[in-house]
Amino acid sequence: MRQVGDRTTLLLFLAVSVFAGGNAVGIRFSNRELDPLWGASLRFGAAAVLMLAIMASLRRQMPHGRALAGAALFGLLNFGVTFALAYYALVHLHAGLGQTILSLVPLAALLLSVAQHQERFRWAMAAGAAFAVAGVAVVSQAPLQESVPLVALLAILGSVLAFAQAAVLVRRLPKVDPVTMNAVGMTAAALALFTASFAVGDRWEAPHLAATWWALAYLVVAGSVLTFICYLVLIRRWGASRAAYVFVVIPVVTIMLSAWLDGEPLTWSLLLGAPLILVGVYLGALRPVPVTDP
Length: 294
Hints:
By secondary structure, the chain is mostly helical. The protein has one domain.
């Protein structure tokens, strides 16, 4: 029975890696027909409806007061700001490059938690940050040489910071059931994204291309709802620290999918910079901390 359980957990790990690994590629396909904020609005609007339905089926109670406000604030940062920036960046950046930079989230969250006095500083963090910064410097050579707007690179880095800050913020918020937290958060983010999309004058049109419909369906069902559910179960089986290793596997999946489906070139800067970033994330955020560390 133990072997079956371990096999099931490994399958969950692979499922999260593949589902999340396809997200950036799906966003690229969505962006080809839909304005970025409009595409993000459709995705999280539909995902919010599904999450609210799951919440109702599980008979979870809607939070009130500070708990409700905290869940909404988490969602605005974790889904709203993060994906507004990511959708814009992925208009200009290939999925593999974008997802590789997004793998910095665990390290960024740890550094932000130190700055906000939630964690202790460790020299491994500094070493990890050095590797990660070197990796970002290398991978950024490709978009800059191809005349990709610098603002797109800054947008994906802003997405990393927003995602990481959401992880730090949630520790300070009143405890809310994870399903409820994400249902409320996605709803708040969807409302904000729709508002922002209207404000910037996006074209509110239904997709015409079959590829766009498939991309949206993937992003809603597999990339949002199933990814969250599988990751939640994975955390319960393995614990948060071990489950976080998906962040160093996801970019590998994305690079392969992007090269296959979106024609992303496997440049020297990506092939050299990606391992540097992943080593930095491992050293700074994922490496087990020895008990004897001061």
